[in-house]
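Sample pair:
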Amino acid sequence: MTSGMAALEAHLASGRFRAGAAKGRWKLLELQWPFAFIDVLARGGRRVVLRFDCTGYPEAAPTATVWDRAARCQLAAASWPRGGRVSQVFNPGWKGGTALYIPCDRESIPGHSQWAGEHPWLMWCPARGLLQYIEAVSEILQRAASSSMKRLEFLPGVWKGLMGDLHQRGGGRRESGAFLLGQITDDAKVVSEWVSYEDLDPASRKHAIIQLDTSAFPLLWQMCADRDVQVVADIHTHPGKPIQSRSDRAFPMLALSGHIALIAPRFARGAVKPSDVSFNVYAGGGEWNSYFGADAASLIKN
């Protein structure tokens, strides 16, 4: 067995892959090194089979195409998933359909140096492995599948500890922020811990407002892989009211539809309640849906 195949089998045996499979989000159909055939759930209950070429794994990113298992060839273009962002990623006209148009695909990375700045969370991370690609595709295929918004649930003590940490790091003089980590269930995004922006990028503490270098994201993904958690939201503080600034709206930390960004007022001074923060949900295309007061509190359980 090659080291690449051993690494792939380990990633496919991980708890997060098994959890997604148990929920029906994806399923390993076949493994014929260097190919892995994965069935992914799309909106409307459709199942999409992807053939991943894992040559050079895990140092090199895999490349994937939509697969027809019965014919054992690339699926006919007319049958590819369609609609909005799905059509951009699943584009049979891109490289003849031999690769998906996504930053973690080996064949699509060349010529897109801007992706590192625009989509750093989607750049290939060997530690996350194939699951990174599968989760990204699953999110895209499922984006419009659920009409209900998941609320944030904080495990006991996490909310209070988080607010205290944000205030302490900002010293009541500057903004501070963190990624909220945990698990996504059928009903909620459960926050079990957080990682401060300045722990990922120490230089960020030099700025009065939030600025995070793209080099922080590989560290974040490594941490998620090591702890078997996901990024479920982010939070940062403002000196006054918890209203998004122009830069907050233009540059989300994770520009994924449905991503939640909280803002805590007064540099998180005092006893910050869920009704004090703003609950902002990225809708894609630079658009946001924001909730305040009682509306925000109804979406947060602490």
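The longest helix spans residues 130-142.
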